Amino acid sequence: MKRSTDSNSRLRKVFGKSEFYLLLVIIVVSLFFTILKPSFLAFTNLYGMVESNSFLAIMAAGVLVVLISGGIDISFTATATVAQYVMATIVIHCGGNMFLAFAIGALVGIALGLVNALLIYFLKTPPIIVTIATMNLFYGLLIFISGGTWIYGFPMWFMERNLVRFGDNPGITIPILVLVLSFILTWLILKYTALGRNIYAVGGNQEAARRVGISVLKTQLFVYCYMGFLAGIASTVQANMMLTVAPNALMGRELEVLAAVVLGGASLAGGTGSILGTVLGFGLIVIVQNGLTLLGISSYWHKVFIGAIIVVSVGITAYQRKVRERKGAIINVED
Amino acid sequence: MLKTDTGRGRVSKHSEILSLGAILAILVLLFSLALPGKFLRPSNLQSMAFQLPELGVLAFAMMITMLTGGINLSIISSANLSGIIMAMILTGDLASSAGGAGLGWTIFLAVLAGLSISLIVGLVNGMIIAYIGVSPILATLGTMTLLEGISLVITRGYVISGLPRNLLVIGNGTFLGIPVPMFILIAVAVVVAIILNKTRLGLSTYMIGSNIKATNFSGISTNKVTILVYMISGFLAGIASLIMIARFNSAKAGYGSSYLLVTVLVSVLGGINPNGGFGKVSGVFLGLVLLQVISSGLNLLGISQFLTLALWGALLLGVEALRLAKRRGR
């Protein structure tokens, strides 16, 4: 399903991709930070950077899939918070093991994703509106029922984060492992399964996809359930790192994650986006935050930089598209 | 009167207002029965009229961009930045402005500065969207983050408080028993309604929301209209910030950030088509009153405000289902 009207040469294809420019920016920014502060490249710093942002990155993979399908989900942080409360309550009161904790988080996420998908399909209302409504619904009901109290006192087995240790270095931890696995899973689904191709097709042109026999309902069911699944997993990772569950730990960060995914080249119009782009887009934001902290620049400045990066990046992307459209070539890059 | 809602078959305008009105009447009746003598008491009505306007003005700021098929995620952070600048001038943090000038002059200067900032933010949003062609949600997501950052850098996260008492009237005063902010909201609603229904700009706004290409080919400068719409949206955010700082007697980065998605919810509840082109001021106003009635009623019943949040979400889904059923029925 590759349609490139530009040129067949592989090299030009690489240069034409937004991922290439992102990578270039990341390298320049990283070099800049490394020169000013060599400790930026220290293994522990890089490792901590990835680990502390792992739960947001896991959700970003879900947002990517939703965006590719032409949808959007605002409710995933509410979904994650609900999953976290249910998981923590069951684990603390009934015991269990790490696998069970993740399974509970995932199941709650999938269930709420299913609600989103069905509402979006049957109400014929734009996903952004439906998920704003369900965000209020999920979160409001959760806090009403739970009272919004913090949850502490996880069992001992839940507090272990390291899976493998290498001497004094941080070993492979649960957040890192889950992050890598969910990115690989998302990549495999998007690249190698018929389902993944259907997601691109539905996002590219829903009506055309329907006419060639792709079930829009099934695709949407999968997409929003997968988003819920990853939100549930991510919330378990976050609980594993913080060892507390707070009602406001994840809420309000949905637009931040969305911005990172869009920075990675995913289009809100659907049909475009790649997991590599999401890694790079998310990476750029994390690197800038970390670098500024290392340089001792007050955290108040972080949002200014990130806002500027978003504005400039979406501006460049939109401008390039405008120029291409003027030239008459509409390029629908997939993968 | 606009006769644009043929073809795309959104529910016709009068039945829309009627069904929202019916829901409102039922809710008021239920709450009056559940809270005899409490719900419709003047003091409760007055407190409702105090709470409604800030969300209301912000909702109109959101609504007008949604009519063009856009969205403005930066209204809250823009309002906060304006509020912070106004508060800094008013409390004399910006030394130059306090230099010997009278209080009236300082207030005038502060309001002028705050509203100018909102207008500039709107202009920048509009230009990014119109000339560069960035989708509104992304452009305003970017400016939202940027403005939030600027507010944080200016205030270092602190609250600026202690505004002159003359200004607080805007947020807390009453005239003939009706809160001053309510007058502002009504004035805003009337002005927005006039712009939308009686001016070329309003007609163009609806046309852009229906079909921007066709509008462009019909000789209307869609870029100019888009920029103007986002400037109006920004200006309304500035007015909302004035009400906010006067009500809270302070300004801070991050005030009212939970309002953002609620303004989208109110607009859609009030019959604004999220794809643009359809929706009326009266519908949004009814939507606002609906949410306020639910919120106040549940509050008087002693029920958690979070259930209110859940009910708002459920109400929107319910109304959307109703609309779908109506469309199917025709």
Description of the structure:
The complex is a heterodimer of chains A (335) and B (330). By secondary structure, chain A is an all-alpha fold. Chain A has a single domain (10-318), classed as ABC transporter involved in vitamin B12 uptake, BtuC, CATH 1.10.3470. In chain A, 71% of the residues lie in helices and 3% in strands. In chain A, strands 1-2 form a two-stranded antiparallel sheet. The radius of gyration of chain A is 20 Å and the shape is globular. The termini of chain A are close together. In chain A, 45% of the residues are buried. Residues 1-7 of chain A have low confidence and may be disordered. Chain B is mainly alpha-helical and 330 residues long. Chain B has a single domain (42-325), classed as ABC transporter involved in vitamin B12 uptake, BtuC, CATH 1.10.3470. Helices cover 74% and strands 2% of the residues of chain B. Chain B is built from 14 helices and 4 strands. In chain B, the strands form 2 sheets. A two-stranded antiparallel sheet of chain B has the order 1-4. A two-stranded antiparallel ribbon of chain B has the order 2-3. In chain B, a hairpin with a 2-residue loop joins strand 2 and strand 3 (178-179). The two termini of chain B are 23 Å apart. Classes of the chains: A mainly alpha (335), B mainly alpha (330). Chains A and B meet through helix 6, helix 7, helix 13 and helix 15 of A and helix 6, helix 12 and helix 14 of B.
Helix count of chain B? Answer: 14
Q: Helix and strand string of chain B, N-terminal first?
A: HHHHHHEHEEHHHHEHHH
Average pLDDT of chain B: 84
Estimated radius of gyration of chain B = 20 Å
- Please report which band the strand proportion of chain B falls in: under 5%, 5-15%, 15-25%, 25-35%, 35-45% or over 45%: under 5%
Helix content of chain B: over 70%
Count every beta strand of chain A, where a strand is a DSSP E run of 2 or more residues: 2
- Give the C-level CATH assignment of chain B: Mainly Alpha
Structural category of chain A = mainly alpha
Reported by name, the CATH topology of chain B is ABC transporter involved in vitamin B12 uptake, BtuC
**Whole-number mean pLDDT of chain A:** 86
CATH architecture of chain A: Orthogonal Bundle
| CATH C-level class of chain A | Mainly Alpha
- Quaternary state reads heterodimer
- Quote the distance from N terminus to C terminus of chain B: 23 Å
Please give the alpha-carbon distance between the first and last residues of chain A: 10 Å
- Strand fraction of chain A equals under 5%
- The structure class of chain B reads mainly alpha
Please give the share of residues in helix of chain A.
over 70%
Low-confidence stretches of chain B: 1-11
